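Hey all, sorry for the wall of text incoming. These are the two entities for the joint prediction.
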Amino acid sequence: MSLVGEFVAEMMASAIRMGIPILLAALGAIFSERSGVINIGLEGMMMFGAFFGALGSYLGGPVLGLALAIAGGTALAFVHAMGSVTFRVNQIVSGVALNILAYGCVRFSSITIFKMATTSPHVAKLASIDVPSLSRIPVLRPLFGGVSPMVPLAVCLALASYWLIQRTVFGLRLRAVGENPLAADTVGVPVPPLRYVGVLLSGALAGLAGAYLSIEHTGMYVEGMTQGKGYIALAATIFGDWSPLRASAVAMLFGFAESLSFRVVEGGTIPYQFIKMIPYAMTLAVLAGVVGRSRPPASSGVPYEREGE
Amino acid sequence: MSSLKRAAIVLLAMTLLVSMAAGCARKAEEAKPAEQKPAEQAPPAQAPKPEPPKKLKVGLVFDVGGRGDKSFNDMAYAGLEKAEKEFADKIETKYLEPSAGGENREQLLRLLAEDKYDLILGIGFLFTDHVAKVAGEYPNVKFGLVDGFIADLKADSNVRCLLFQEQEGSFLVGAAAALKTKTNKIGFVGGMKIPLIEKFEAGYLAGAKYANPKVTWKSEYIGTTGDAFKDPVRGQELTNAQLNWGADVVYHASGASGIGVIEAAASKKKFAIGVDADQTLTAKPEQQPYVLTSMLKRVDVAVYDTISLLVNGKFEGGYKIFGLADDGVGYAVNDINKELIKDIEPKLEEIKKKIIAGEIKVPFDKPTLDEFLKNLK
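and here's what came out:
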């Protein structure tokens, strides 16, 4: 019995580790899309976060790493905001361009700084937490012992995002700008600044998601380690109906699918390739099944322009 | 209105320029460590300079994961470095890394060939088709291909395939794992599911069963694309799943993803077995006691050997196979794991002798593995 319990606990712990970066990036996507800007550049911002997180941790410890990762993600998001809010370019194009740009920048920086194109040296992690009393129960040990501090941080951020978007004046305005910018503008809500804030927050969160991968998970930056998680986060956002709590739950579901695919017995009746498909097939299935019912912010992806300007 | 459109166009143009600049800078940067002038400056500068004896130009293109994977590619780099040191006055070297997806492998080979390189080394199985193609187009350039097999090569061909008997080295570390496990459960984490990596797997599992019939295993792969060699996150979680199942020794053949394998094993105080390079030496100090040993694949020897043949004018096309007999593969012993494997070393040496003598036929894929296991019983 306790063996089964331990197995389940280990699987949940693995699901959390796989889900956290998706969750953080999805929160980012929500801020951006709720303000009316689609952020395909999430993947690139995660890449920046992963690289600059490792760099910061290498130079001055994991806390500096997190700070640099947030700064890096925000910087890239600023370019996106400038393009899609100030200059009203096509937001999809801008996002895709940023992903390509991010890849080039990161490799260039890696060669310049680490003298290696694709990896950094080992970097320090944050001190892990043992939850008092809970971590002493053997069955729960995998879930509550040696937990990365970024896990509770992510949970707090999810709750904070929910509160910020649903319960504050700022959130109301942010949503208004994403739903009907003209109406918002008419009553004096500044549209471009709010959209800037949305996109910048999204970059900061995506940077944090990347930092989780390089600092907390692996303890090292490896090129391409984001492995499309930015796009999966976008799927989580859509499936989660642009709500921080629902999207967080979906991110965890995706994490669970991954951790399940690691544990499905191989060599049996299920061919290997199908096992590897589980997380992606699940993404497709939930999107195909649910997306019809979810409703994006009405003006997401539509640049706002005052009439007569 | 139109001013805004203009601004948008300007921004787009700027983005384009910046990314182009980044791209160019990258190329220049890659060329730099090879201590030679960028190719663009060559035409005017070359003629007036009386370079006494012409240096041979040796180029190398890395596999997915690139330099710094602390494994396969770093071994190739070590061989290049050694050759450069030894033949400093006779050769000049340059290395390139393909883009993240590796789509430009062929382009990089061609770039070096156009640049009149004498020897171009493609590091990795994924280069097989590209080397075959480019070598056909540049018959005067010599090519070395690590891990790839091109059919019908002769001594006067311009391609030398450098192949390894990875299954033999893996057999030994499999035996080491099986002799060291306390739970009689071991794990294997492969990178991309391709015949090359299945050689590691088959040898490892066969060696384990040979040394300890009670052993059982979990054996998994990270993915089906080249990306599987640079996914430490999945490497780590796969390993966690195997440790969770009860495995206490995990061997990986997954390039840079193996960083995650070692991380996972060490953090649970279980053993990992490295691959290609002696990964005890590249692990973090706190991880080092948990790297049991490594399956050495002397890509460095293969690279160095090929360059030295070129320098001595003895380059030959065809195939060169590195196995246990000539120390092309093996298991790592170093100051840190010396004590750890002292008790099993005699047994490993005994198995090694048997393999070299041909008494043990090491399996190299699924069918031969099944047959091997059947005959054991």
